[in-house]
Design brief:
The complex is a heterodimer of chains A (417) and B (378). In chain A, 50% of the residues lie in helices and 20% in strands. By secondary structure, chain A is of the alpha+beta class. In chain A, strands 1, 5, 6, 9, 10, 11, 12, 13, 15 and 16 form a 10-stranded mixed β-sheet that branches. Chain B folds into 2 domains: 163 residues, no CATH class; 166 residues, no CATH class. Chain B is an alpha+beta fold and 378 residues long. In chain B, 61% of the residues lie in helices and 17% in strands. Chain B is built from 12 helices and 10 strands. The chains are: A alpha+beta (417), B alpha+beta (378). Chains A and B meet through helix 2, strand 2, helix 8 and helix 10 of A and helix 2, strand 3, helix 5, helix 8 and helix 10 of B.
C-alpha cells in the first residue's frame, strides 16, 4: 500500500515532481560544481603562479660569493664552481618530478659584443631531454613565460643567439642580423624583451656559452620552477632531526624545502634552496585565494540548500488537501510523515544523481573556460554530494511535513488551512 | 465640476482601498508572506555578499600581490647617478600609494682583497618593500651592517666586526644580523644609506617602487613618473606585473562564475517561492474577481505586492549581505570588506524584477480561470 501510494504520487503528479526534482538537481549541480572548483582551484592557481618564474635555485656547493650588480657580473669568469650538465635530466627522476614545471640551467660569461662589454648567458630555450623512458622539454620558455621575443627563438643546438632589446637598441641591431661576440660572428634570431637585466644581455644556447668559456658540460646554476605546497611550521623543520615516519611525511610533501632537498640529492655537489621572493609570496597569495574560494563555496552550498528547501516546502504545502483526506481516512501522523519522507528521499536520489552529473559537466566547462584545463570531479565525491542532497532535501521538508501533519483535516478539506 | 470632484474622490477611495488591501494582505497572511519575504531576503543577501566581495576582494588581493615587491624600477641612465631630489619627487608622485626605496651599489674589497658587493639603502623601507627577506636582526645603530648569509659565512662567520675598503678608504662594520633570500642578496652586505654615502660618496643608482592599485593606476603612475623625471628611466617589472594580472584575472573569473551560479540559484529560489505563494491565494483573487475587480486591477495589485516584497527584501538582504561579505573578508584577509553602496541599486532592481517575473505566470494563469471554478475549489 505504502509503495503504491509513493508510486501513484509520482505517476499522477508528474509536473509537480518534475519541478521539485529539477530544483534539487539544480541545487545539487551548483553544489557539486562549487565543491569541484574549491578542491581544484588551489592546484590551478598554483600552476598560474608559476608565471612568476623559478622558485628554486640550485647552486654548486662550494660556491664563492657572487659579485653582481643589476645582472652584470664583475667576477673573473674562471672563478667559482660549476654543476655538471649531464646531471640535469636526473631532476625528472625525483619523487616530485611531476611538480617540476620546468628548469633552466644558466652559464653567465662576460663577453665583448662589438666594442661594448656585456654579459652572455648560456641556457636552454626549449630543449628536449630524456630521463629513463621519459621524454620532456624544458628551458627558459617554460620557466620564464614573460620573456618575449621579436623574431624567433634560436634552436638549442644552433650557434644562433638572442640579444636583449636595450643592447640591440644601442648596437642598432635587428632580428635576423649578425653580431660579433669576442671577435666571432653569430646570427641574431630575435630581440628579447624581459623588463629585467636580460634586456642588456646576450642569451645563447648553453652549448655555445660552454664553447666560448672553454668548459664543455658545465653550468653555473639551475633555476627550477616547481608547483609547491604553502609553507607551514612542519615544512621549516630540519629533515635531519625528524623521526623516520616524520621524515617520510616531510619528504613526501611538496614543500619548497622538500623539493629543494630532493634536488640536492639528485644533483651531486649542489646546494638547492628556495628563491624566497617567489616561493614565500606564492604561499601567501595561494592560501588567500584558497580561503576565499572555500568561503564562497560554503555560501553557495548554503544558497543551494535554501533553494532545495524552498522547493520542497512549496510542493508539500500544496498537497494539504491530500493530507486532510488521508487523515480523515484514519492515517496517523507517523505514516503521513514517512510517506512524505519516502517521496523526498526518492526525489533526492533522482535529483541528486542528475545534479551530480550536471555539476560535473559545469565544473569541467568552467575549468576549460577559466584555466584552459578541465576541472574533474573525483567520483569519490559522489557519496558526499549525495548525502548533502538527501540531508538538504529532508531538512527542507521537515518544517513543511510537520505543518502538514498538524493540519486539521476539516479545515484542510474545506481549503481553509 | 462636481462630476470631476466625485471622480477624484472615487479615485482617492480606489487608491486607499488598493493600499489597504496590500497592507492587510501582508498582515493577515503573515506566515505565508514571511516565507515569501524570507526567500527574497536570502536571495538579496547572497547577491549583495557576492557582488560586494567581488568588488572588494580584488583590491584586497592586489595588496597581497604587493608582497612580491617592486613592480616598477627607476634607473639612472648609463654611467649617471640619480639626482638627490628624484627620490623626494617620486615619493610625492606616489602620494602614499606605494613604497619607494633607493639602492646604491659598489664593489668593495675585504681585508683579503676579495671583491664583495656592498649596497646602501633605506633599511626601514626595504623591510616594507621586500617582506620575503628572512632577517635575523635588522641593523639599528650606525656602522651596523646586514650581511647576506653567504657573505656572512665568507667574511664574518662568528659575527665579529670587520673592515671593508673602497678605493683604499676603510670602514669598520659590526654585523647586526643576516639576510636570507635565496637570490643575489645572499652575497651582499647592506648598510644604511647615510653610512654608505659618507664612506663611498656614491649616490643611489636605482629606486625600487612597489606601486599599489589596479594595473590602470600603476600605468598612470609610471606615465606620471616618466613625465616628471625625464632624465631617468622608469621601467615596469614585467615578471611581477604580468604574473599578477594573470593570476588575478583567473581568480576574478572563478569568483564571477561562482557569483553567477549563486545569484541564479537565489533568483530561482525566489521565483519558485513567490509563484507558489501567489497561486496559493487564488481563492482571494477569485473573490476579488467575483466582486467585480477588473483583470487590470488584480494584475496591478499582484505586481505592486511583488514589487513591494522585492524592495523590502532587497533592503533587509542588503544589510545582511554587507555583514556577511565583511565577515568573509575579515576571516580570509584580516580586514573587513568595505560596503560598496553602488551594489545596492543593482540588488534592488534585481530583486524587484525577479519578484515581478514571478507574478507574471500566476497573473496569466488567473486570467484564464473562471472565479466560479476556483471558488468551488476546482
Amino acid at each position: 500500500m505504502f509503495v503504491r501510494l509513493v508510486y501513484e504520487s509520482f505517476r499522477r503528479q508528474k509536473r509537480r515532481k518534475l519541478l521539485a526534482g529539477a530544483a534539487i538537481a539544480f541545487g545539487v549541480s551548483v553544489a557539486t560544481a562549487m565543491i569541484g572548483v574549491a578542491t581544484d582551484v588551489g592546484d590551478k592557481i598554483n600552476r598560474e603562479l608559476r608565471t612568476y618564474g623559478a622558485n628554486l635555485v640550485v647552486n654548486p656547493q662550494e660556491d664563492s660569493l657572487d659579485v653582481e650588480i643589476a645582472g652584470v657580473n664583475l667576477k673573473p669568469p674562471s672563478d667559482g664552481a660549476y654543476l655538471s650538465e649531464a646531471d640535469l635530466p636526473k631532476i625528472k627522476g625525483m619523487f616530485w618530478r611531476n611538480n617540476i614545471v620546468g628548469f633552466a640551467p644558466v652559464l653567465p660569461l662576460n663577453v665583448g659584443v662589438g666594442k661594448t662589454k656585456t654579459a652572455l648567458v648560456g641556457t636552454y630555450f626549449s630543449k628536449p631531454l630524456h630521463f629513463g623512458t621519459e621524454n620532456f622539454v624544458t628551458g627558459v620558455r617554460a620557466t620564464y613565460p614573460w620573456w618575449k621575443v621579436q623574431g624567433s627563438w634560436p634552436d638549442d643546438d644552433s650557434r644562433d643567439v638572442l640579444i636583449g632589446e636595450r643592447l640591440a637598441a644601442s648596437l642598432g641591431q635587428k632580428a635576423g642580423g649578425e653580431v660579433t661576440i669576442n671577435g666571432q660572428p653569430f646570427r641574431v634570431t630575435g630581440i628579447l624583451s624581459t623588463g629585467g637585466p636580460e634586456d642588456n644581455e646576450v642569451i645563447a644556447p648553453l652549448g655555445l656559452a660552454q664553447e666560448i668559456v672553454g668548459k664543455p658540460g658545465v653550468v653555473r646554476r639551475v633555476y627550477v620552477s616547481a608547483v609547491t605546497k604553502p609553507e607551514d611550521a612542519f615544512a621549516r623543520r630540519d629533515p635531519k632531526t625528524l623521526s623516520p615516519e616524520m621524515y617520510d611525511r616531510w619528504y613526501c610533501s611538496p614543500y619548497a624545502q622538500a623539493i629543494a632537498y630532493q634536488l640536492q640529492e639528485a644533483i651531486p655537489h649542489s646546494h638547492a634552496e628556495q628563491i624566497r621572493q617567489v616561493a614565500q609570496t606564492e604561499g601567501i597569495v595561494l592560501s588567500r585565494i584558497e580561503g576565499l574560494m572555500l568561503l564562497v563555496t560554503l555560501a553557495s552550498l548554503f544558497a543551494s540548500a535554501l533553494a532545495v528547501s524552498a522547493a520542497m516546502a512549496t510542493t508539500i504545502f500544496e498537497r494539504r488537501r491530500e493530507v486532510g483526506l488521508m487523515k480523515a481516512l484514519g492515517a496517523g501522523g507517523l505514516s503521513i510523515a514517512s510517506l512524505f519522507f519516502a517521496e523526498s528521499a526518492l526525489l533526492a536520489l533522482l535529483g541528486g544523481a542528475a545534479g551530480f552529473a550536471g555539476g560535473s559537466l559545469l565544473a569541467y566547462q568552467a575549468g576549460r573556460w577559466i584555466f584552459d584545463s578541465p576541472i574533474t570531479i573525483q567520483p569519490v565525491l559522489f557519496p558526499l554530494v549525495f548525502c548533502i542532497a538527501v540531508v538538504v532535501t529532508f531538512a527542507g521538508s521537515v518544517a513543511a511535513i510537520r505543518r502538514a501533519v498538524r493540519f486539521d483535516p476539516v479545515y484542510a478539506l474545506r481549503g481553509e488551512a | 465640476m462636481s462630476a470631476s470632484a466625485s471622480t477624484r474622490r472615487a479615485g482617492a477611495q480606489h487608491t486607499s482601498m488598493f493600499f489597504r488591501m496590500l497592507i492587510r494582505a501582508a498582515i493577515l497572511r503573515r506566515g505565508r508572506a514571511a516565507t515569501a519575504l524570507m526567500a527574497v531576503v536570502v536571495a538579496a543577501t547572497a547577491t549583495t555578499a557576492m557582488l560586494n566581495l567581488f568588488v572588494d576582494v580584488q583590491s584586497k588581493l592586489r595588496k597581497e600581490f604587493r608582497n612580491y615587491g617592486a613592480n616598477v624600477v627607476v634607473l639612472a641612465k648609463e654611467g649617471q647617478s640619480i639626482a638627490p631630489d628624484v627620490l623626494a619627487k617620486t615619493k610625492s608622485i606616489l602620494a602614499g600609494h606605494g613604497v619607494a626605496v633607493p639602492f646604491a651599489y659598489v664593489v668593495a674589497r675585504t681585508s683579503n682583497a676579495e671583491p664583495l658587493v656592498v649596497a646602501g639603502t633605506d633599511l626601514d623601507q626595504v623591510r616594507k618593500l621586500d617582506s620575503w627577506w628572512s632577517v635575523t636582526a635588522w641593523p639599528k645603530e650606525p656602522h651596523a651592517a646586514l650581511l647576506g648569509v653567504r657573505a656572512a659565512a665568507a667574511i664574518s662567520p662568528q659575527g665579529r666586526p670587520f673592515n671593508l675598503y673602497f678605493h683604499g678608504r676603510p670602514i669598520s662594520l659590526t654585523p647586526s644580523g643576516t639576510v636570507h633570500t635565496g637570490a643575489g642578496e645572499d652575497s651582499r652586505i647592506y648598510l644604511s644609506l647615510e653610512d654608505f654615502e659618507t664612506w663611498t660618496a656614491v649616490p643611489p643608482s636605482t629606486i625600487e617602487i612597489a606601486v599599489s592599485g589596479s594595473p590602470h593606476e600603476v600605468d598612470a603612475t609610471i606615465a606620471k613618473l616618466q613625465q616628471a623625471l625625464p632624465e631617468i628611466e622608469v621601467r615596469p617589472v614585467r615578471q611581477i606585473m604580468e604574473a599578477e594580472s594573470r593570476v588575478l584575472g583567473k581568480t576574478r573569473a572563478t569568483l564571477s562564475a561562482a557569483s553567477v551560479l549563486i545569484i541564479v540559484t537565489a533568483a530561482l529560489c525566489v521565483l519558485a517561492t513567490l509563484t507558489g505563494w501567489i497561486l496559493d491565494r487564488r481563492r482571494d483573487f477569485a473573490i476579488m474577481k467575483a466582486l467585480g475587480a477588473s483583470q487590470q486591477f488584480i494584475g496591478g495589485f499582484l505586481a505592486a505586492e511583488a514589487a513591494a516584497l522585492g524592495a523590502v527584501g532587497a533592503l533587509i538582504g542588503f544589510g545582511l549581505g554587507i555583514s556577511i561579505s565583511a565577515w568573509i573578508a575579515k576571516a580570509n584577509f584580516g580586514a573587513p570588506a568595505v560596503p560598496r553602496l553602488e551594489v545596492f541599486p543593482v540588488v534592488l532592481i534585481g530583486c524587484v524584477i525577479v519578484a515581478l517575473m514571478s507574478a507574471i505566470v500566476p497573473i496569466s494563469l488567473l486570467r484564464q480561470v473562471q472565479p466560479a471554478m476556483i471558488l468551488k475549489g476546482e
